Amino acid sequence: RRARGVAAGRALSMAEASAKATTGRDITAGKSVSFTASADGASKAQAIASAAGTNKVQEEGKGSKSADDQQGKATRLAQSRSGSTKSAGDKGKANTSDSGDSSGSVGVAAALAINVATSEAEASLGAVHITAGEQFALKAENNMDAAAIADGSAAKGEGKDAEASKTAVGVAVAINVATMENDARLAGTEVDANGVSVQALMK
Known about the structure:
Layout: E1 2-21, E2 27-29, E3 33-38, E4 41-51, H1 56-60, H2 67-82, E5 104-125, E6 129-132, E7 136-142, E8 144-154, E9 168-186, E10 190-192, E11 196-202
Parallel strand pairs: 1-5, 2-6, 3-7, 4-8, 5-9, 6-10, 7-11
């Protein structure tokens, strides 16, 4: 019978950035009036794993009997945080359950990297009156830099004579969910100024 071990390297990043510029009052100024919301969402998750028929009992205690089990957990977590129900599909599975009659051990490595990043920038005014002697400016700017990196490498297990087996499985799963919102708006706002600028920009 073939014994299999699963070793996993996990990296989990949940990053949220937000900026908002607004007022609920009328403003009168002799010079310029400006509102700026500036957000910057940068995050990275990186996982590296290697295994050589290592401690499978520990992984099974967490409900992971195979690299596929670990991949499923990672996918469900990312979907719950992103609100997505789309499936990544069943391609690329590496079933490592203890079935089969061959002898020796199989080294299994699973590197799981999950990065969920959100960045929101909002510059907005409602029903207020803005009076400026010079220019009026409303600006929202945002930047998103998100990455998930997984590196799974598997060392060979041991054969029936305690020699290196030719069987090894390496699985790397990286899930990156990035959401960015950038909003600059006037809603029922009265502006009396020497020039008006409303912008929603990428930094």
